[in-house]
Design brief:
Number of domains: 1
Radius of gyration: 16 Å
Largest sheet: 5 strands, mixed
Structural class: alpha+beta
Strand content: 15-25%
């Protein structure tokens, strides 16, 4: 994260462009597309194209955390949730890369939020979530790459396991 985005320890760069830059830096070496569709189609903010031909859909969101560590997907629209649900339902990989901040705009860290079942995306905006339930939370944006590599390789093993079982 650029030092210019900090003022007395308070993160001031909370917009989609800044989290998009942070994500791109963290994912250095992978081909990332930023679709330019502005028609409210629900299309994700980023598509990560993997060397094996798969594509991972990624939404980018800043999320404000309440005093009790709870939060909601206030910035995730229903059409985005529907797109992610359909993508995952048809075997696609997807998640939300999030930057978390508190009511004083203090940066708390990055994490990813994914759904284990595609249907969960459809109610994601109505759910109250908690920081304590995240897989991980880190101020080090390079951690996303380690998680991403593990996530995509485990999903590849899962995919090929299903293919072999159906053969």
């Amino acid at each position: 994260m650029a030092a210019a985005n900090y003022a007395y320890g308070v993160y001031t760069g909370m917009n989609e462009a800044s989290i998009g830059r942070d994500f791109t830096v963290a994912m250095a070496g992978l081909y990332i597309q930023a679709p330019q569709l502005k028609n409210g189609s629900g299309f994700p903010d980023r598509l990560v194209l993997l060397p094996d031909g798969r594509t991972v859909a990624v939404e980018l969101k800043w999320i404000k955390v309440n005093l009790d560590n709870s939060f909601r997907f206030a910035g995730l629209r229903p059409d985005q949730c529907a797109w992610l649900a359909k993508w995952q339902h048809h075997g696609g990989l997807c998640f939300v890369f999030s930057g978390f901040y508190d009511s004083n705009s203090n940066f708390l860290g990055y994490s990813v939020i994914r759904m284990h079942d595609w249907k969960d995306w459809l109610s994601a905006t109505k759910s109250n979530l908690n920081l304590n339930t995240l897989e991980w939370l880190s101020k080090d944006k390079s951690y996303i790459r380690k998680w991403f590599d593990d996530y995509t390789s485990s999903k590849m093993d899962e995919y090929f396991g299903k293919q072999l079982a159906n053969a």
